[in-house]
Amino acid sequence: MSAYNADSLANKDGYSGLIQIPGDILQQILFWSLESLPDEILVGLDSDNTRPHLSEVDDLFYGDEFEEGKFAGEGFVLGDATIVNRGDSFSVHHVPEEWTDGIFTQSRGPRGGRFIHWLHTHPNAVAIPSKQDAEAAQHTLGVDMILGIEFSPSGPLPWYDDAEGVRRKLQPNDIAPVKNKRQRGWFSKSEKPVLGIAPTGHQIHGLELISFHKSGTGINVIFVNDEGYPYGWPF
Ligand SMILES: [Zn+2]
Question: In 74-160, which residue ranges form alpha helices assigned H by DSSP?
């Protein structure tokens, strides 16, 4: 999280807004994401109206392109996360009926507008919005987030990174490549680093996270502690 925050600061001029995610919420989302592999998950989030951003943090992280009043929940740390759906990329954005309470989906989007912010995972694909993601985001009041997870064995769909956009690694800067011990004596299929093993047994090679606004602009993300300071503070 410290490495990610440092990148967010270095690249702040490329973003029109800023969201702050508590570290324990990220931890919860990562756990749900990893225990659901190889499926994709959809997570709904609200803002915590009791936790405004610290002005000294905003002052440091607002860049040249910052636009005030861009989205709902702006200026407040994100609150509790709720896992809303799990499935493949075609079904996961359609929130189950028990979540939408019969709300007419055409007027509020397939997700029923129940939460302010949304996050979904991209199992074995870069964290860059697809055309469907951009369409689903048109109903988002706050911001959309995508968590990309590179893992093996990858199943039928290998790692997909043929997409245009700014990628943001969510992992320490220096990780040594690790050989798969089960392939000893043979050329290793994978020289990729292993960040850890998911509860499903998958090896995790990479994580990336981005946020965007329905207008198509990027939203900067930082991870904050219980006091509201970004990990790695002071920079
Ligand atoms: Zn997507």
Answer: 97-100, 105-108, 131-136
Which residues are placed with Cβ below 5 angstroms of ligand 1, an ion?
130, 133
pTM, 2 dp: 0.89
CA–CA distance, 174 with 8 (Å, rounded to integer) = 18
pLDDT in tens, 139-198: 999 999 999 999 999 877 778 888 888 899 998 777 665 555 554 444 445 578 889 999
Fold of domain 2-224:
Cytidine Deaminase; domain 2 (3.40.140)
CA of 122 to the centre of ligand 1 (A): 6
Residue with tokens 């861009």: 70
**Which residue, 170, 95, 97, is CA-closest to 140?**
95
The Cα 177–Cα 208 span in angstroms is 18
Cα 23 versus chain centre, distance: 13
Q: Which residue has the tokens 């905003």?
A: 58
